[in-house]
Amino acid sequence: MSSICFQNFKFASPATMLKLRFCGSMMRCLSRCAQKKYEPISISKSLRENSPEAYAIMREAVIKLERQSARFTNVLLSPKEQAANEVIMREKNAEYNKGYLEPGNGNTDEPPYLVLNKIKETPLYSLLQKMPKGGLLHAHDTAICSSAYLVELTYRKHLWICTKNEGADAIAFRFSKEKPTMKATEECSWEPMEEFRERRGEANVIKYLLRRFSMYPVSSYATNNAAWQDFMSIFMLLDGLLLFAPVWRDYYYNALTELHADGVQYLELRSVMPNLYCINGEQLDIMDTMEIYKSETERFKANNPDFIDAKLIYAPLRIVEPKVCEDYIKNCIAFKKNYSTFLAGFDLVGQEELGRPLIDFVEQLLKLPEDINFYFHAGETNWYGTSIDENLVDAVLLGTKRIGHGYAIIKHPLVMNMLKQLDIAVEVCPVSNQVLQLGQDYHNHPAAMLIANGVPIVISSDDPSFWWASPLTHDFYYAFLGIAPFHADLRFLKQMAMNSIRYNAMAEEEKKKAFEKWQKQWDKWIDDVAK
Amino acid sequence: MQQRYNLIALLSLCLCLGLAESRTRPKALPITKYVYTTGSSSHVESLLGTSRPSPEAYKTVRNAFAHYEESRSLGYDLELDSREVQANETIMKAKINEYAEGEITPHLFNPSQHIFKVLDAINKTELFQLLRHMPKGAVLHAHDTALASTKVLIELTYKADLWICQQTGDLSAEAMRFAKEKPAALTDAGQNCDWSLLSDVRRERGAEAVDEYLAERLTLYPTTDFLDNNDAWTKFMKIFALLDGLLMYAPVWGEYYYKALEEFLADGVQYLEFRTLLPTLYDLEGTVYTPLDTVRIYVETLNDFMSKSENSAFIGSRMIYAPLRNTDTEGMLGYINTLKEIKEKYPDFLAGFDLVGQEELGKPLNVFIDQLLQVPDDIDFYFHAGETNWFGSTTDENLIDALLLGTKRIGHGFGLVKHPVVLDLVKKLNVAIEVSPVSNQVLQLVSDFRNHPCAQFFADGYPVVISSDDPSFWKATPLSHDFYIAFLGIASQHADLRLLKKLALNSIQYSSLSADAKYDALSKWQMKWDEFLDYVNNVSPNGATSYSSHGQSIIGT
């Protein structure tokens, strides 16, 4: 019995005296635990015989063990990094203590973007902003650029807007030389963008569009579903604007520019791969969409030698009949054939709650050739025991390389254990989870558990455009200050950056080069901070 | 071919069982750039083989996995007999109804809202009514001046000679006190009020208005949105302050406890282990009381309660001496002396020792190690620890100290999920976690119960007991509301009567009672349990709502 009790004990390996001593008292109580299965066992007696000094040693041992199980504590820092760490921790502690004494500050009814703006002014934010954060592994292709850039796009020639209620509500956009004939999702009337702007006043239009391109005011969402509804309506509105082939190209290039400026050197983009259109209304093939992505990536890389690369995860909508998934698989195979290194893998997107669970698609998904990997969204929910919740199980069993969100992981300790054993990273998107109404308080974000248990995670931003967040820095800020433990320091940040390279879809050779490019920037940043 | 799939299934299960731990990756890698450029090649292949399985094989593995996952959940080991199976159907129907509705309109799902907003709605649900009738075993975490309903408190304020301290001109209450003559006005910092007889105030303002005012002052209502946890605690402590003068009047002290026991029993709670500061009581004659007198009154009241035939189903009650944590070394030594005295005089009534008060602003356990290690071996600890969501703070680390000091249970343990080593020990050492869901929400630790960390305890079979902490302050029933929230809002959709039964059994299992006493306790509980099953199985689906008013009338009987 006692050997079973002892089996899972992790104390045996680090064979220091402290821990051996600790083990001794553990053994004593564990053998008692074996004798009396149901009697709560207290280690008080053996411990109370000890001196306060012995107690202090034991306490230290437990704390060390705890910290070791969070893997970032194993990251080593060079002397220069240690100097930089002091600067960073000074700023972190200042903000942490401010919050600890008055947790209400910054946590009131203010809309998140005001909080996000306030955060931008903190010294910690500017440190993190400049930090080379490695790759962004979870982001959707039409929700990366700032709203300001979107407004800029509406100044392009031949843009029409379809509005209802005499221009109070924008329903759709379309580029066309003549008045568009296509039907929008709702009844509305088309007019050239210039006329609309003139009619409503430029300042008003800009103000309106800025808000319309975002999820604000967020406070109006009663639920996760309501938030998702608005969320999807932005995607719809943006379609006509962004799906115009020249705009699509520029939007993507600009997204790379903004990311790069925010300290991101690599991008793994999820895309539904829509058909683009030309000015004469002609529809392009999805392979053309792919070509635009590929060639723009190359162009950007050529202009920015320190940028590593970008890859694409084909992620069509999950709200379909299972047989549609067969077409998805066919598309994916075609992509793989023509763009074998640019295509990172396959995923399904859309609100999990309203879409179909993975289990419905198993038959089709298992047909995907083995050289294409899965990068599934899973467990972006807080409904415990629903089919959405169980997507986590399917994602892992289907062999996903990473998990998107995994918010429900706390309810699946077994899956969590497998993520750790199988080295599957969770893409954690803190701000997204808050805006989409999964959890209000970052202190309760389940990623804290992942960190504590040493489950690999990467920090991502999902759809920063829609909540006016920076491309990645805000999510790093929250992960660092709100989710990670008090003692998390530069080692944590370094690990997050390194993880984003380690867990990306690159081949080993590519990773080596990627790592070198990141290291170069990192060393530069450390130098700056340490000064 | 078939063999290969069997092999796959076996392999995956081995992995689940942790037998193949870390086969894919060496542990504690030194950080060099090469680790990050090599390392991560074969994740999944080790699980499913190098080729994708057939849909049939996949489903086999998946079922095995799902089954194994479920088998680890709390209560899974219980087997239900035929009567329980039948009752389970009724209960699950009521639960799934609410759950399914919630999935369609999440903002109307009771556990995703603040308890103050949905308390009445909860009372009307079929599930709540069923849970109210269920014998839930024991409450192991509750504070002695926050047990009884507001109604009981208001009744107590009708006693003669009760004075109330008011700011001039308005209906307010800063303090209450029993006295023969008017006490001196309070003019301390923050307090500026003068005394009047409450009976006079009632005559002047109308009894109803006064009662209504007091009812509000004595709970945390209506604020659902405190600025933060500290703000909530401030108001929380103010209620205690107002109650002091009322409850510490020796004749009232016993009566309050008696009434509380009645309400607990009526709510299906047969045993109570409460925490107390052991305040010094007073009376009109100026008798000098000691903390030991307070214990004496408890013991006498309990004996009186137990001697009544209508309370024969009650198992008993014990106390955990739990003075304020915001003290110094000397204060702590004083506590320990009192503790020893109680142990000597009332060994059967004392369950153990704890420290109370908001953890964040009080002192961490670590400060008092020297003194706490001196507590005699035969007195057990039942520490509050980790009632916080600040990861890595000193409050958070109280969890480590509580465990190393040998606590028998952990009060709250909200931060436990962030401490894998402590969690491991909690399970292996069989230390129960006292989860008080409603309290955690009201005191601003979590807003949506679906995000409560107890979900992990349920999922992984940790020793959990459900408690109510301070039900009086949120107008909750002694335990039913917390059970409702835990069952509907925190546990899995699939969690059923087995979980409920396990929670009830746990509450006796992890009480401080001796093995023999537990045996007797279980037989008393079993009798009630049988009655409950009969009750559930005889209720017709249509009649289910007819007893909804009955739930209310139990209070105060």
Automatic annotation (TrEMBL), chain A:
Name the UniProt key words of this record, in alphabetical order: Hydrolase, Metal-binding, Secreted, Signal
Q: Which residues form the Adenosine deaminase domain?
A: 221-517
Molecular function terms in GO for this entry?
adenosine deaminase activity; metal ion binding
Q: Where in the cell is it found?
A: Secreted
Q: What is its EC number?
A: 3.5.4.4
Q: What class of enzyme is it?
A: hydrolase
One GO BP on record is: inosine biosynthetic process
CDD domains, A to Z: ADGF
What is one Pfam family matched by this protein? A_deaminase
Catalyzed reactions per annotation? adenosine + H2O + H(+) = inosine + NH4(+)
Q: Which cofactor does it need?
A: Zn(2+)
Q: Name one GO cellular component term.
A: extracellular space
The answer to whether UniProt assigns keyword GTP-binding to this entry is no
Provide the Adenosine/AMP deaminase N-terminal domain boundaries. Answer: 45-128
Which residues belong to the signal peptide in this entry?
Answer: none
What's the family?
Belongs to the metallo-dependent hydrolases superfamily. Adenosine and AMP deaminases family. ADGF subfamily.
Name of the protein in its database record: Adenosine deaminase
User: Per the UniProt entry, what species is this protein from, by scientific name?
Assistant: Drosophila albomicans
The gene is: LOC117572312
TrEMBL record, chain B:
| Names of the cofactor(s) | Zn(2+)
Source species, domain of life: Eukaryota
Subcellular locations according to the entry: Secreted
- What are the boundaries of the signal sequence? 1-22
Q: Which residues form the Adenosine/AMP deaminase N-terminal domain?
A: 44-131
EC numbers for this chain? 3.5.4.4
- Tell me, in one coarse class, where this protein mainly resides: secreted
Alphabetical list of PANTHER family matching this protein? ADENOSINE DEAMINASE (PTHR11409), ADENOSINE DEAMINASE 2 (PTHR11409:SF39)
Indicate what this protein is called per its UniProt record. Answer: Adenosine deaminase
What is the organism field in this record? Drosophila albomicans
